[in-house]
Amino acid sequence: MRTTKLLATAGLLGASALTALLGAGTAFAGSGDSGSSGDDKAPTEAGTSFRTAQEVEQGRRATAGASTGDYLYWSFPADAGQRPTVKATVKLPDSAARPSGATWRIDVYDGLRRRQSCMYGSQSRAAAPDATSVDLSCTLRTVRAWSEPWANDPLPGTYYVRLTAATPTPSDQGLPVSAEVEVTSKEVGGSSAVDGSLAAPLVPGSTTKEAAAASDDSSDEENGSQAGQTLATGEPEDGWSSGWWSDRWVWTAAGGILAALAGIGGYALTRGTGRPSRVPPGM
Question: pTM of the predicted model, to two decimals?
Answer without folding.
Answer: 0.70
